[in-house]
Amino acid sequence: MMRSTRGLNPCQEAERQIRMGKDKDNLRWEHINTSKGRGVFAKSHIFKGAFILQYRGILRKGYSGTNDYSYHFRHGGSHYCIDASSEDGSMGRLVNDDPKPNGKMKKMKVDGVPQLCIFAVKDIMEGQEITYDYGGVDLPWRSSPGQEMAKGLHLGYEVSVWFSKNYSVTSQLGMT
Ligand SMILES: C[S@@+](CC[C@H](N)C(=O)[O-])C[C@H]1O[C@@H](n2cnc3c(N)ncnc32)[C@H](O)[C@@H]1O
Question: Which residue is closest in CA terms to ligand 1's atom 26?
Fold first, then answer.
C-alpha cells in the first residue's frame, strides 16, 4: 500500500527532500560489522512505493573515475556520476547492497538536473536495514565464504572488481 506524506506523492516528496538537502528523520545509520561497515535502518514503518532517501553527492558529467561511493548512470545520452565519497553526513551513501532488496535506486530530474533517489519496493518494518541491488555482478560479498573481500571495490556503471584470486569482472548497473 502506498502512502503519501503531507499530501505529497512519493516523487513530490523526493523533490521536496532534494530541495531541502537533508534526509528524513525516519532513518538512522549504525555500524553493522567490520566487513559490511555501516548501514541505514528504518526508524519507523516505510510503506511500499514510498520515497526513502536521496543518493546525495557531487554530480559529475562524463567518466571521471570511480570509488566505493560513486554511482554511475546514463542520462540524456551522457554518462554521469554522483560522487558521494565525501563524509557529508548524508545516508544515501551508506545504503548497502542486497540482491533481494527492499529499495530501488531511481533517476529523477529536478530543475533539469538528474538526481538519484531510493524508493521502497516493499513494506519495510521498523528496525529493518534499507538496501538496494547494486547490480547483477559478482560482488565479492555475494561470493562464497572464505573469499577475501576485495579492497578498493568500485560501485559504478562500469565496475571492475579485483578479487583476491586476481579475477577481474566488469559489469553495468541498470537504471530505470
Ligand atoms: C556505498 S558503500 C555502503 C556503505 C558502507 N557499508 C560504509 O560503511 O560506508 C559501499 C560499500 O559497502 C560495502 N557493502 C555494501 N553492501 C554490502 C554487503 N551486502 N555486504 C558486505 N559489504 C557491503 C562494500 O564495502 C561496498 O564497497
Answer: 68
- Indicate the top mutation candidate among 27, 81, 141 to test ligand 1's pocket, ranked by most ligand atoms within 8 A of CB: 141
Task: Supply the range of the domain harboring residue 116.
Answer: 10-171
What 3-state class would DSSP assign to 71? strand
Q: Domain with 145 in it: what CATH number?
A: 2.170.270.10
Q: Which residues pair with 80 in a beta bridge?
A: 61, 73
Count of the separate structural domains present in the chain: 1
**Domain assignment of residue 2, yes or no:** no
- In a domain? residue 3: no
**Helices vs. strands in the chain: H and E counts, helices first:** 1, 12
For the cut 60, the answer to whether the pLDDT of residue 148 exceeds it is no
CA gap 134, 101 in Å, rounded: 9
Q: pLDDT tens, 58-96?
A: 999 998 788 999 999 999 999 999 999 999 999 999 999
